[in-house]
Amino acid sequence: MIDKMGNRRDGARLMAAALLAGTAMTSGATLFAAPAAAQASGETHAYAIPAGTLSDALNRFAEQSGLQLNYDAALTQGRTSSGLAGQMPWRDALARLLSGTGLVPRTTGADAVTIGRATTGAMTLDTLEVEGRAATALAAGTDEGNAADYDEDERAGRNSPILVTGHNQQIDVAASTGPWGGKAIVDTPYSINVTSSDLIENVVASSMDQMFKMNPVVQNSAPSTVYGTPYVTIRGFDSQKGVVDGLRLSSTLTGISMEELQQVEIMNGLSGFMYGAGNPGGVTNYVLKRPTYSRTMDVTLGNYGNEQFFAHLDMGNRIDADGVLAYRLNVAYQDGETAKKNQNIARTLISGAVDWNVTPNLLVQVEGAHTYYRIDGIDSRFYAYANSSYGALNYWIDPLENDQTYTPPWTFLQVKTDRIGVNAKWKIDDTFSLRTAYIYKRDAQESLNIYPAFFADSGFVNGWPSRSAPSYNIAQGAYAYLDSEFHTGGIRHRLTLGVSGDVLRVKRHVVSSVSAVQSPAYTDPNDLMTWAMPDALNTYDWGALYRSAFSKNTNVVLGDDIQFTEQFGALVGVNRTTLVSKNYTATGAVSSGYDKTAYTPTVSLVFKPVPRVTTYASYMQGLEQGSTVPDDATLYNNPGQILKPFISKQVELGAKYAPIDALLITAAIYRIEKANSYEDRSSDGKITINQDGLQVHKGIELTATGHVTGNLSVLVGGSIMDLAVKKATNAALAGKRPTGVSDMLAKIYLDYAIPVVPGLSVSAGAYHSGKMYKDAANLQEIQGNTVFDLGLHYATRIDGHAVRFDLSATNLTDKNYWITTSQLGIPRNVAFSMKFGF
Q1: d(CA 535, CA 229)
Q2: How far is residue 322 CA from its own chain's centroid?
Q3: Could you say which of 169, 193, 359, 794 is the most buried, measured as most Cβ atoms within 10 Å of its Cβ?
Q4: What letter would DSSP give residue 148?
Q5: Confidence band (pLDDT; 50, 70, 90) for 93?
Q6: What stretches of 672-727 show up as alpha helix (H) in DSSP?
């Protein structure tokens, strides 16, 4: 039967909800909304539901399944369903009916299901877990058996939740959009790419380096073996900060491990309205794995390349019979020499999460993690000069052999990270819902660094050797959003009012580093790795700890997701952003800083001219933090200086097209402008970081993601950019291209399931990055590069247990290349893993 809910709570209830929301916003309390998890069922029914309105389809489904469906009648207005026919579990039938509607089913009793919007979640939408193999079977119109069989197949194969299950995997996949909540990608007026945990496992990725390489419209801006954290260039702008489960942090994303990720969402373009201060090119959201409500226990053993053996345990289940409590635990260990000689990585992870379904309308989630990361024999930044007086070269040196670090094995980087987060989702009534979250992350880091340098008149030198004292980054982030859904006339509104922000405190020792004289010059760059550690680097007294830096990003946001008609909608909002940043001396005096407030608007128009096509136009501003010069007096003339903040602007036009259910094609044209930063080198070799003029990036992006056929899936696309510096007071910069940015990206990844051998598939990738410049004067050109990968994958069953084998070979031709303006690429590497489901 059907129960179309339409009741409203009284004024006292709304007043109490508003007071609670206000308290949460001001105190950092953590409340949010989400339903109880759906129960698995292997029972199948025969369905014969013709295409038509969604309301009629749901009526017929309720009659044929015997389930009680609960939903607001307004949700089905203007929506249609393609219908279905066949024998299948109710989950799969309902998923197919709701596919592409932006609605999700949630069980609320033994025979009751509530249907609601997919946008009630805080970050990733409240998803219905569906096995990838079952989804593939549905796409082919076949019946693979009951739900229990699906569970086993999932553990062997794809394990990525999708939004509204069934066969519409690309159309319905969801991503976070900050205050807007989770939205189906096809309905979002932004360029967003989602990388699933399945693809991460498929390529046996130990870090985000591989995923950034594969993404068609971003490039890696520094290997993780340099800083121990993911660095990415999006639309030509470097980004080292990011978002964890929708919470922005001003610290780097050190301590985030691949094994604990459910998916990674990259939003290209300005994100000022969503997260306040950020990278004008885009933002990366790392979505953590959450508890499962059926038993999961997978053990993965493998090797990330050379001697990097690893083990990973992933387990979860409901804690009680009713599924009020559920958990997830991920434990990982890695240790061994990498594909580069004399480089060793040791890493451990303990990550856990608990769900508490307080009521069907209130979900509280808690997560925490501890990670340890140490790399001996770090990759480092290369520099090159015409002579020992640091004269500028008018070319860049050819790439050296990739299988070397060109730093001595006594160099190292060590990071320990502790993190805890809590969020809650509360559906107050049919009109109001509340989303809140909080995260705390503490990084303890120390290192011993060297910067290899080439001097055309003398050779290779280990330059600027230094040992950094232990330092501590303490980052906290929070948000609270009150959502309301209502109609004015025939116009639907989803109004969001809320606050978000994050704080970063940095603690350092009075003596933050000690340095030594550089090595002698070598003709052979391999000799750089034989240099003995100077005694000066073993003699140090760090002194007391003090507060070195403080930064705060605060946002008050108001946004309205408006649906004028079934075809035409808009997202309109404004963010009052306040940025505070201060650096301190050891005595507590402020050495530099700023306090800046700005109102930054966003306007997006969405038009769906025909089914399966979405077009949009958007404009956004964002207040961006000025660069902070690293606090390293050994290498910088202005260590610790904070450059002034600036407002970035972006205009974007885009289109999204789903020619078939499992394939999504996107296109975007954009223009971004921001303040230009560049480096000057003085006669002593030290760097001064300056700001002058505007970086103007114009470009076009094209992607195609999903299944072309039942056996062939693709991830293909690229971008072409027109990059220039304008309005610079320094005439030498005018019209030059910004440093470190490739003007063209073209990438393709294919995965083909071999029909004659069930469970066997082969994958291949080709990834091209265009030329870029090392220096602001554009004298040092770095040639583009193309690298090739190959993979083999097999899922089967051994003694009743699901087993999956993955083999991934990267840089097949063992090409030597510069992956950035300062770092060499990764040599040929062969990684493999075996995943065993208990």
Answers
A1: 29
A2: 33
A3: 169
A4: H
A5: confident
A6: none
Is 247's pLDDT higher than 60? Answer: yes
Looking at per-residue pLDDT, the higher value among 366 and 596 belongs to: 366
Cα–Cα distance between 746 and 261 in angstroms, integer? 26
What pLDDT score does 118 carry? 54
Question: Distance (Å, rounded) from C-alpha 614 to C-alpha 603?
Answer: 16
Instruction: Extract the tokens encoding 410.
Output: 């006594």
For helices 132-139 and 147-156, the axis angle rounded to 10 degrees is: 110
SS (H, E, C) 69-137: EEECHHHHCCCEECCEEEEEEHHHHHHHHHCCCCEEEEEEECCEEEEEEHHHCCCCCCCECCCHHHHHH
- Tell me the one-letter amino acid at 107: T
Reference 603, options 636, 631, 570; nearest CA is 570
Span of 129-138, 643-652, 677-686, 691-700 with lowest mean pLDDT: 129-138
Q: Give the model's pLDDT for residue 751.
A: 95
Q: What tokens were used for 719?
A: 């971008």
Residue range 670-699: average pLDDT? 76
Banded model confidence at residue 271, pLDDT cuts 50, 70, 90: confident
pTM: 0.79
Show the CA angle centred on residue 744, arms to residues 202 and 724, nearest 5°. 135
* Coil, helix or strand at residue 660: coil
Task: Say if residues 244 and 123 touch (Cβ distance below 8 Å).
Answer: no
Task: Sort residue 258 into left (φ over 0), alpha (ψ -120 to 50) or beta.
Answer: alpha
Characterize the bridge pairing of strands 241-244 and 218-222: unpaired
What CA–CA distance (Å, rounded) separates 550 from 505? 5
Backbone angles phi, psi at 17, to 5 degrees: -65, -40
Tokens 């929070």, residue located: 478
